Amino acid sequence: MLPVRIHRLRPDVPLPQYATSGSAAFDLAACEDTTFAPGEVKLVPTGLVIEVPTGMFLGVFARSSTPLKRGLMVANGVGVVDSDYCGPSDEIKVPVINVTNKPVLVAAGERIAQGILLPAPRVAWEEVTELEAVSRGGFGSTGTTSRPTG
User: Fold this and answer.
1) Among 11, 74, 84, 113, which is most exposed with the fewest C-beta within 10 angstroms?
2) What is the mean pLDDT of residues 76-89?
3) What pLDDT, on the 0 to 100 scale, is given for residue 147?
4) With 80 as the cut, is the pLDDT of residue 142 above it?
5) How far is CA 64 from CA 67, 68, 99, 101, 128, in A?
6) Total-model pTM
7) pLDDT tens digits, residue range 40-60?
8) Structural domains in the chain?
9) For 37, how many CA atoms within 13 A lie in the half-sphere containing its CB?
10) What is the 3-state secondary structure (H, E, C) of 58-109?
11) Other CB atoms closer than 10 Å to residue 124's CB: what's the count?
12) Other CB atoms closer than 10 Å to residue 29's CB: what's the count?
């Protein structure tokens, strides 16, 4: 297990939990009620500051059931929380969009997203005049029998 420092901004905020023993990611829950108008994007507060270990990032993803059951999606697709975003007020907030045509309430304590700590290697760019690989043909070309020319 990887020890990770976490701070609750309020004592009633639960710590993130893994739903099952095989869960790859832990659930992130709303710490206050938030109502979304149709098409509205808002930040859902979690009440947590997470000290992501150096060399890693916290990936914030939608829970698979949330779009289907609630019509809510993580607005930026995947959230990236850097290791230096861990000051006293650097709360993890999940940008969420309501893709329905009705208002949706997210209640305090409701699991709204999931998080996973992943490696974030630093790269050193090595600029070259040309690359050795052969071009594959562009978007949607995998598995086609012929490749575009020119």
Assistant:
1) 11
2) 95
3) 53
4) no
5) 7, 8, 15, 20, 41
6) 0.84
7) 999 999 999 999 999 999 999
8) 5-119 (2.70.40.10)
9) 1
10) EEEEECCHHHHHHCEEECCCCEEECCCCCCCCCCCEEEEEECCCCCEEECCC
11) 4
12) 22
